[in-house]
Amino acid sequence: MDRRSERVVITGIGLVGPCGIGVEETWAALLAGRSGVGHITAFDATAFSARIAGEVKGWDPLRFVDKRKLKEIDRFTEFALGAASLALDDAAIELTDEEREETACVLGVGLGGLAPLERAVWTLREKGPSKVSPYTIPMTVGNMAAGQISMTWGLRGPLLCPSTACASGAHAIGEAAEMVRSGRARVALAGGAEATITPTGMASFQAMYALSRRNDEPTRASRPFDRARDGFVCSEGAAVLVLEPLSRALARGAKIYAEVTGYGASSDAHHPVQPAPEGRGARSAMARALAHAQIDPSEVDYINAHGTSTPQGDVQECRAILRLFGDHASSGKLWVSSTKSMTGHLLGAAGALEASVCALACQRGEVPPTINVDDQDPECGLDVVALEARRRPVRHALSNSFGFGGCNVSLALSRCEP
Q: In the chain, what are the domains?
């Protein structure tokens, strides 16, 4: 087969997030509508107006990381290593030395290590420059998640770190899939990681009035498409996918979750943090993903929306979907949900986690709900899978991710039919 036209499939998924560690724990929580949002425990948030977040619970880095390495990596890299380990185990993949030379690692990160940067600033101010840790830069830079994965498993192919805010993880999967499709990589690990539940991270988003302040009801704070939504919930975690050619997956009898059939990206070219009017950029990204996949809009069964629970973001995304899909969306044939209602917003890791959800929906024929939609905003006039999961065969799904700076990505994932 001409490796320049390979079909690309997902054969392994590793998840570390507020709703669980591992595919089955996370999937069970999402289908049951269980929120992973709670009061912040990482630091004393008493003085903050937004005191809730989606923290990873029960995290033990020693399950995945050698104790000696912990001193040189930040929490987001710990999550990335954990998700990569889970993904490789899930894929049951064995790479030859020759294949390792051509295995790519593409991990998107939005902000990188805020905590070590905070510590360095405090040390510099209180103790002077000679006391700043030599690990500060290696712990802080975003590409270290991909770098540490590559070092741990000896992956010597392309190494990239897309940093496109909340679209980072989706960009990573799209770019990695194209590497495999074109033959520039034999296999790829792709996804995203983030750990920004720190005083600086929370204070900065809070200052933008971007966060929900529903502190007395943490599990009900993230409410995409609901009239009473008041902002997103900041979360942490990582998601890593194993991507390989369909021919390789079939030859080794691999479990296949879904096929990555399309990748669309665009720029709003409009505003640093506000979406383009009428969801213009979002619509363009979705249209490009469908064109790349050669899928008609009427064939799409499910969209995992970016759906952050912000007043303007949700409306503009819904307008984009309605304009692109027309009657297919307004008639209820197209189902839409936002799993951020349960996970919160994993920022740079969000797109990778949500692409995983789409892959699982294609494989298992189940669509997780959007919880907390008590009074759906009429401006979000879609068939939102509200409150309870639904079952249906999912042939094609879109995973939407939109980031500050006007970055838009839509990934088309399809049930694999060899």
A: 8-251 (3.40.47.10), 264-401 (3.40.47.10)
